[in-house]
Amino acid sequence: MDRKRKQRVTYRPSKSSGVFGGVVGVIFVLIGVFVVIPTFGPFGILWTLFAVAITGMNLYQAFGKGYVGPEIRIEEDGAEEQTCAPASPQARLEQLRARIPNILFQMLLRGSNLVGYANYPDNLVRAFVEEAAQGGIDVFRVFDSLNWIPGMEVAMEEVLRQNKLLEATMCYTGDILDETKDKYTLKYYVNLAKELEKRGAHMLAIKDMSGLLKPYAAKKLVSTLKQEVGLPIHLHTHDTTGNQVAALLMAAEAGVDVVDVACAPLAGLTSQPSLDAVVAALHGTERDTGLDLRRVQELSNYWADVRLRYENFDHGLKTNTTDIYRYEIPGGQYTNLRPQVESLGLGDRFEEVKEMYKTVNDMLGDPVKVTPSSKVVGDLAIFMVQNDLTPENIVRRGEALAFPDSVVSYFKGMMGQPAWGFPKDLQRVVLKGEEPITCRPGALLPPVDFAQLQQEVEQFREAPEKKDLISYAMYPKVYEDFCRHRKEYGYITRMGSHVFFNGMALGETNKINIEDGKTLVIKYLGLGDHNSDGTVNVQFELNGMRREVTVRDPHASEQTRQATLADESDPLQVGTSIPGMVSKLCVKQGDRVEKDQVLAIIEAMKMETAITARTAGTVKTIRVKEWQPVKAKELLMTLE
Which SS3 state, helix, strand or coil, does residue 559 take? Predict the structure, then answer.
C-alpha cells in the first residue's frame, strides 16, 4: 500500500432489509388480527401492536424521508504518501466487497487526475472508472483540484455510463461570511453547484478539505444550496480548528443530507469530526441519527486499540489550531508537511515554510488548494525557503533555477485552468520558453497503449490483468516495486502489524498464516556476525528447525561522502536545488544537450524536480548515478 488511506465507515441499515422486514411485519399483523387476538385476547392485542410498530420502523427505513442508504467510504485525503506493508488496493476492494455485499462503497476520484498527481489520457480515465465500478465501487465522489468542470467531465460521464452514483463535488475555500473577499462568494458556489447538477449528478458534495467552513457559514451555504439545487447534499470537512462538530450541527439544522465523520479515536484535528460527538449531540432532536451510542462506543473501543499499532506514524498535530484560517493548508497535507520539510533539512524553518505557503498562495492568485493543486503551493513554498527566494526576487533568480515538476505542470496548464488565471511573469520564468496550454489536457494527451503496457508489465508479473495495466500506467515505478516486493517476500499482509513495523523481540515466537490452513511458527533467536559487506546474519527457528539468513544491516556505517557544490554563476555546472535522490538520469556522457533540456530528475518525499540545462553544450562528466542521495546545490554533472 503506497498511500496512507483513512478508511471511514458509515453504517445505516439497508433499504432491502427494510423492505423485507416490512413484508414480514405485515404477515405478523395479519396473523395477530385473525389468529392471535381471537385465541388469546389481551395478549393478542399486545402482539398485534408490537407487529405494527416493527412494520412501521422497517417501512420507514426503506422509504422514509432523507434515506441515503448505507455506505462504506474508502477515501484518500492528502497529497503525500506513507509507505506501509505492500497490499493491492484492488485485492482489498474485492475482499471487502465479498464480505460486505449489501453496503454502498464510495471512493474519492480526482477527476482526470484519478488517484494521482497528473492529468491522465481520456482512455485511461475511462478504464479506471470502469475497473473500479466492476470491482465494487458504487458511489464516485468526483472533484477537480481547481473546481474546473472540464477536468471532471470525462470521469463524470464514465461514472454515469457505468450506471453508478455520481456525487459531483465542489471544493470549498475562502470564507463566504467575509464580505471583503470577492472571489469565493456564495454566488460562486451556487453557480458551480447548478453547473454540476446540469451534468447529471445524483448528489452534490461540499469538500471542505482545509476545514475552513465555519459553523455559521456552513448553515448559510447548505440552506442556500437546498433552495437553489435539487440534489441531496453531502458535507465533508476536517476538524483542524476544533470547530467542525459545530459546523456539522449547523449544517444539520440547514438540512444537509449526509456528513462525513470518523470514530472518536480516529477523529479530530486533521481528521474528520467525531461520529460519537455528532450522534450524542443530535440525540432526541429532529435530526436524530438513530444510532445507538453504546454500540458506537464499541466501535470506538476497537479503533482505539488499532490506533496504538500505528503510534510510530502518529506525529501530526496534537492540539487544534485556528491558524489554518490564515494558511488554508488542507488537512491531509498539514499532517505530512512537517516530515516533508524535515526530510529536506529544513525542520528548524517549519514556521517559515508555513508563512511561505500563504505567500505562495497569494502569489498564485489564491487558487483552490486540494490535491494536486495544494501540492503545487507546498512544493513551491518549500522550494522558495530552500533557495532563499522571495516574491521580489523569484522572477530574477528563477531564470537559473529548476522548479519542482508539480509547479511546472501547474503553470503549463496540465492541472487545468484556475478561475482567475496565472501570474504571467512567474509563469514565464517557470516554463522557460515553453508554451502553456489553455484547453483540457486530456484532449492533447495520446491514448494509453494497453498492448504496449502488457508487454512491459509481463517483464515482472505473470499474466497481468487490465487492473494491473491501469495501476502501472498511473504509477509505473511504484507498481513495479510492489510486484517485485511481493515476488521476493510473499504476501506479508498476513504478518502482525507490530512485527512489520517494529520487528520481533529476542526470544519472541510468532505464528504467520501464509495461506488458509498453512501456518509458519517463527522464533527469533538473535543476531549473528556482522559482515564486512554491510550485512548481518539473523538466527531464528522455523517450525522448530534452526535457520540463518543474511540481511542488509540498516545500522552499518557508511563512508562519509564529500559533496562538491555547483557554482551557480557558471551555467556549465549542473547542480540540484534540493536534497534528495537521483531518480533518473536523462543523458549520458558525450550527449549534446540544448538549453532547458531535462538532464536529471531529483525526488524528495514525492516532490520531483527536473534539473535542466542552463545553456546548450555537451555532457562532459556525470558525477552521480541513479538512486544516489545528493545534497542541496551538489554538482551533478558538467557541460562543455
Answer: coil
Q: Which residue has the cell 487490465?
A: 466
In the beta sheet, which residues pair with residue 545? 542
* Residue 399 main-chain phi, psi, to 5 deg: -60, -30
Q: Residue 87: what pLDDT? A: 65
For residue 372, whether the previous peptide bond is cis, meaning omega lies within 30 degrees of 0, is yes
Could you give the CA distance from residue 248 to residue 260 in angstroms, rounded to a whole number?
A: 9
Tell whether the torsion through CA atoms of 291, 295, 297 and 302 is positive or negative. negative
What angle is formed at CA 454 by the lines to CA 448 and CA 458, rounded to 5 degrees? 145
DSSP state of 178: -
Angle made by CA atoms 516, 82, 351, in degrees to the nearest 5: 160
The rounded distance, in Å, linking the Cα atoms of 506 and 312 is 20
Amino acid (1-letter code) at residue 50: F
Set of cell numbers at residue 48: 398485534
Q: Which residues contact 423 (CB under 8 A, 6 or more apart)?
A: 363, 364, 365
CA distance 448 to 434: 24
Residues 126 and 116 sit within 8 Å (Cβ to Cβ): no
pTM (whole model) above 0.70: yes
Total residue length of the chain: 640
Q: Tell me the C-alpha distance between 262 and 5, whole Å.
A: 13
Residue numbers in the chain where pLDDT is lower than 70:
1-87, 555-562, 605-606
- Specify the DSSP class assigned to residue 544: T
